[in-house]
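Structural biology now treats backbone shape like a language. To illustrate, our science desk offers a sequence and the tokens encoding its fold:
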Amino acid sequence: MFKRKAWNALLEWKNNYSKNYAAMLEGARRVGKSTIAEEFARKHFKTYIRIDFANITRDILQIFDDIARPDLFFLRLQAATDITLYPGESVLIFDEIQQAPKVRQAIKYLVQDGRYSYIETGSLISIRKNVSSIVIPSEEYFIQVFPMDYEEFLWATGNDTWNVLM
């Protein structure tokens, strides 16, 4: 994976804010939000579960009906994904969260529960139709993800200087 500036912001979130906030990777479509979130989870947590709300089965979606009962919710989620979550060492990634506004609203209670960390990704998450029926959680640490800029391009090509040979 290419080095991205959002990575440093995620590291700051994990070290300083993850106990009180979910990281919200926000940006345009196809800029690498999901890739960054999953790679970060793989490198910085013991285990992770990624739920893609743009491509979710009915069985997994039904687990979120019991999100107000955290013990049951986490038990069912682990059983359905066959992934063990470890308090303080695991992260849940809610990919394309704009597709599940009620889950986004519940992030407040999941963060307050304190067992795990959370990373959300979303495009167009502020559009009125995506937030009209929910209370926007204040427990989100926003990280903007932009398309690769010139400096990131240089890193990806193995250059660490702005000097370009013509």
User: Anything to note?
Assistant: Residues 3 and 155 are 7 Å apart (CA to CA). The helical segments are 5-16, 33-44, 58-63, 70-81, 101-113, 128-131, 150-156. The domain at 5-147 is CATH 3.40.50.300 (Rossmann fold).
